[in-house]
Design brief:
Structural class: alpha+beta
Largest sheet: 4 strands, antiparallel
Distance between the termini: 19 Å
Number of strands: 4
Helix content: 25-40%
CATH architecture: 2-Layer Sandwich
Amino acid sequence: MQDFYVYYKVRAIDAATLAPLVHAMQRRLAQDAGVQVQLKRRPQDQDGLQTWMEVYPGVTDAFPAQLAQAVDAAGIAPHLAGPRRLEIFTDLPCA
C-alpha cells in the first residue's frame, strides 16, 4: 500500500470556485475507488496563492489511473496556478 500526496498552487481568487470541484472529485473517488480522502491547505496565502494538498492514504496499484481519470473528469486544471505534483510514500518497516 502507498500513500499519495498531491499538492498544487491555487490563486486565492479561484479558491471558492475550485473547492467544490475538488470535493466532488474526492467524493467520487471515495465511492468508486473505496479510498479515504483529505483536502488540506496551508494556513496563509503567499503572493495571492494558496497551496492545497490532496491526501489519499493506503491506495492500491490501480489508484494512479483512477486518480488521473477523476482529475480529467473534474475539470479542475483551468483553476490551478501551476502543475499538480505527486509524492508517494510507503510505510517504513519496523526493525
